[in-house]
Amino acid sequence: MSTVSPPQRNGKTPPVELQDANNPSSELPKAINCISEVRQRQGMTLRTVARRWDLDVTDVRRMENPTNDLRISELHAWQRLLEVPLHELLVDSELPLSPPIYQRAQLLRLMKTVVTLRDKSSDQEVTHLIERLLQQVIEIMPELKDVGPWHETEERIDRRSPVVYEIPESY
Fold first, then answer.
1. Which CATH number fits domain 16-95: 2.60.40.10, 1.10.260.40, 3.30.160.270, 3.90.1170.10?
2. What are 102-135's pLDDT values in tens digits?
3. 17-59: per-residue pLDDT in tens?
4. What are the residue boundaries of the structural domains of the chain, listed by start?
5. What is the pTM of this model?
6. How far are the Cα atoms of 53, 66, 73, 84, 130 from residue 78, in angstroms, in the given order?
């Protein structure tokens, strides 16, 4: 297994998680990403991520730490793995989601459920109804056309073509 080291900072201020915790002048670290929440919401385990990226679970846990200041390339790797828009991985503020964003999140969850049902259904009548529902959701939000099913277990049979996710070597 590979080990993940913190990114080189070239003498700049270290990310929040690397600042001295014993220094009373340091502020409490604030969450800047919600990768862990999104991963759990997508039904993907730490072990699954570690296996796909050939990393230790500890390294993955460190990467998804909410106070971890990830590079954009690392955020893109998480985005591809979790199949969510990039902005869903970032903490913008303590305010609740705006109504359009909340509605989009609801539609995304609905679409993932519909795709999962389609993949699991063997009844032709039910499959026909699921396909109709799928098309109706796509009419409402066309960008959901390529959304994949909910992640379940590692033993899940994936009928889509295999996708290789890579974590940047510099991490």
1. 1.10.260.40
2. 888 889 999 999 999 999 999 999 999 999 999 9
3. 444 444 444 565 688 888 999 999 888 899 999 999 999 999 9
4. 16-95, 96-151
5. 0.45
6. 11, 13, 9, 9, 29
